Amino acid sequence: GIAVTNQQLPLGSRAQLLVFFKCLTLDSQSAKHFRNSVHGVRSSVQHFLEMWSSVIFAAFLTLQLSSATIYFKDYFDNCEWEQNWVQSKYANKEYGKFECTAGKFFGDADEDKGLKTTQDAHFYAISRKFEPFSNEGKDLVVQFTVKHEQNIDCGGGYLKLFDCGLDQPTLHGESPYKIMFGPDICGPGTKKVHVIFNYKGQNLLINKDIKCKDDVYTHIYRLVLKPDNTYKVYIDGEVVEKGDLETDWNFLAPKKIKDPNAKKPEDWDDRAKIPDPNDKKPEDWDQPEYIPDPAATKPEDWDDEMDGEWEPPQINNPAFKGEWKPKEIDNPDYKGAWVHPEIDNPDYVPDDKLYNMKEICAVGLDLWQVKAGTIFDNILLGDSEEEADAEAAKIMERGKEEKKVKERMDEEEKKASEAAEEAKKDAEVDKEEDDKEEDEEEKDEKEDDKEKHEEL
């Protein structure tokens, strides 16, 4: 008595029920063969679905990346940068020169080529324009790499983004920009990541301190602005700071201000402690701070007529207690610290588009370096963190080889230095032995001359 219709069971259960009824009509051997066949079909279907789920996910990820917009990209692999980048000639100043190179150590000789500063104690100012864009309603992703292979002591390593008003031949430190982002190092006191926005003509610095990398390897810096007015800063793929634009920069006037009409009531007592009115100063409290030394005696050769009246020297009085103050007790009228009441700031105007750079069409390197040798590379402006992640993964993979190469170089330099030091010591020993032999020869010659002289 099984009274179940197909409509009452899900598809999987109906299939299992059909298998059950089929098995009832077969002998044991045939039923076993039938069940094995069904199990094989189910395994094949499951494998098929798993395979296609992976394919579909990969296709989705590819579609997501293919829909990403790259506004600007320059990786300097072909070293044809001088065709597109413009060197500033502002005020006939002699700006520092760049060269295209992968540096002294690298992971890939071609892909790690970038623009390297070459002259110590110079300003640098170059820029490149591209098709203007706005990030309204979309993420803005700014990513580039910095390699201070010279072990920088003082100098900038940041990028600037400009609108189309930039006059490239006159680019200089006071040229208006939209965003300034990247590391800045000067001595042990300054090792920070700048994130500066120009808002209504004012350059606004972040209210937080973001530490930058200060070693000699390639590091990836990324800034992300989102339409919900939030931001993230990455170094080498790791989030080092994030938050809200309105909170972490002074874009807007404060939402609240102190009520200008509010004043602390005159009878408001904010003294937690008060002098005990019942405490009295002891009668023997007042004692002089210094007293004559009772152990002192007048010198025997003291002449009162010549030296004046003798007075013993002063010493600290052990009975001196200083100024008396009554002890303090809890103030029974204490009302706590008075808090100035706040009101809504009439000058506060919200802005839900703080993130929006209405027009960006140029990128520039406008900085000062005491010790040159920094390599800038892998500049990417877009709207996709996934695209930036994919590029960063390639860079970091090459960075592993870069580090290995540097470690081998350091080891070889160490061995060469040790060998040179050993050779220097050997040379000093040889010289000492030679000098000793010369001294002995000179001594023998003098003795021979002496003997000859005595014979004569």
UniProtKB/TrEMBL annotation:
Compositionally biased tracts (Basic and acidic residues): 258-284, 391-428
GO cellular component: endoplasmic reticulum lumen; endoplasmic reticulum membrane
PROSITE patterns in the cross-refs: CALRETICULIN_1 (PS00803), CALRETICULIN_2 (PS00804)
Alphabetized UniProt keyword annotations: Calcium, Chaperone, Disulfide bond, Endoplasmic reticulum, Lectin, Metal-binding, Repeat, Signal, Zinc
SS bond list: C154-C186
Molecular function GO labels: calcium ion binding; carbohydrate binding; unfolded protein binding
Cited Pfam families: Calreticulin (PF00262)
Annotated localization: Endoplasmic reticulum lumen
GO BP term (any one): ERAD pathway
Main location: endoplasmic reticulum
Sequence positions that bind an alpha-D-glucoside: Y158, K160, Y177, D184, D366
Region described as Disordered: 258-328, 388-456
SUPFAM superfamilies: Concanavalin A-like lectins/glucanases, P-domain of calnexin/calreticulin
Residues making up the signal peptide according to the UniProt record: none
Summary of the function given for this chain in its UniProt record: Molecular calcium-binding chaperone promoting folding, oligomeric assembly and quality control in the ER via the calreticulin/calnexin cycle. This lectin may interact transiently with almost all of the monoglucosylated glycoproteins that are synthesized in the ER.
Protein family according to the UniProt entry: Belongs to the calreticulin family.
Designated name of the protein: Calreticulin
Organism whose genome encodes this protein: Leptotrombidium deliense
